[in-house]
Amino acid sequence: MGGKKLDKTLLSNTFFLYLLTFSSRLFSLATVPYLTRILGAVTYGKTGIALAYMSYVAIIMDLGFILSGTQKVVNHKNDILYISKLICSVALIKFLLGILVSAIFTAYILCNPNMRYDFWFYFFYLAAFIVNAFLPDFYYRGIEKMKVITYRTLAVKTIFTVLIFILVKDDRDYWLIPLITLLGNALALIIMYYDLKKNYGIRFCRASLSEVWQITKDTLPFFASRIASTVYQALNTIILSFVYGNSPIIGYYTSVDKIVSLSKTVSSPLADSLYPYMLREKDFKTVKRLLIKTMPVIIIGTLIIFIYAKLLCIFLFGREYASAGNILRCLLPIIVVILPTYLLCFPVMVPLGLSKYANMSNIVGMGIQIIGLVILIFTDNINVYSICIMSSVTEVCVFLFRLAAVLVYRQRIRHKRYFRYTENSIS
């Protein structure tokens, strides 16, 4: 009975994560065609630059708690006092990080001539992402109650989408996008902490400095992995902003990246729902069956996108974005490997005791991406196509690294079992 109950919980969480992800993506797809036409490629490109920087802010503010915090909640699920101290300790750490990040990023905006003119635009984005970082999503992931997060996000996204269509009327209104995001995240934060207190008995309480320090130390390896992943994934937009300035190419790349992100949107909920389940059950056959069933569909779908890339970009973003088709083609290998890359990482490698290699894989990816970009710069081959191809190479290498780690571990286990069997037979 216990196994069936866990299976139902896994299916429920997966369903709500997919509902959350696809509804969010649906809202995004509803606004992207509107914003690309209203703002134009140049102004819309600014949102891409802002979001690239904010991806760093989000990872720094999270500090790996979405993974380490989830693991701690799974291990102390019924200890309300421990969970309360954990949530309060994480909030304190993030408060201090928020002050540091705000000071550094504000100084950076003021020193950057391309961003100084749009100070409030970038500052509102910064505030929105800092506020969002205080949401204790790791708790709901750990107790496998994704329904709460899903309903909260759906409500906020609905309000955000409606306000975009009502308030953003031309390219002068672009600063309203981060402001609306900030207000939505603040509302979500209030709702979340009210739910924690009312339904789960979580209250603010003091944690000792030693407890806070221990929580920080435990999350740092996960943080190193996530920041490395973000470096090589978000670096492209920042480099392109220096190479092309305010060229429409930034808008083309930002728009195409939305399509590539869709593959991550499909893969992430599955990996996220499997992570706490796999920590307890170690049901690796389920992962294997998932990959066998889904990979043929992914490969065929990618081939179709390759053939009709130009038409897809025109349909989604407008005729101005026809040139984005070739950019999309350069990024398609990422779509092929993203699901197995996600599933092999924390849902498989952490339960196997390979968390060190799971974290290391992103650091390896960052190294490959940076070395590749340096080579492109010094050989004067830096352009939007070479950067996208380099990103595809990086993602494939990260996948191969994780696959190799799992296969080597599996081979070692087989050898240990063989020798143990041999010794028992002899004795």
Summarize, please.
With 427 residues, the protein is mostly helical. It contains 15 helices and no strands.
Question: How would you describe what is shown here?
Answer:
It contains 15 helices and no strands. It has 427 residues and is mainly alpha-helical. It has one domain. Residues 1-6 and 418-427 have low confidence and may be disordered. It comes from Herbinix hemicellulosilytica. Keywords: Cell membrane, Membrane, Transmembrane, Transmembrane helix.
* Number of separate strands: 0
**For the residues shown, what is the average pLDDT?**
81
Rounded Rg: 22 Å
Number of helices: 15
**SSE arrangement, N to C:** HHHHHHHHHHHHHHH
The 3D shape can be described as globular
Number of domains: 1
Low-confidence stretches: 1-6, 418-427
End-to-end gap? 39 Å
What profile does the largest beta sheet have? none
Q: What structural class do the secondary elements suggest?
A: mainly alpha
User: How much of the sequence is in beta strands?
Assistant: under 5%
> What portion of residues is helical?
over 70%
InterPro entries: Poly_Biosynth_Transport (IPR050833), Polysacc_synth (IPR002797)
Keywords: Cell membrane, Membrane, Transmembrane, Transmembrane helix
Pfam families: Polysacc_synt
Main location: membrane
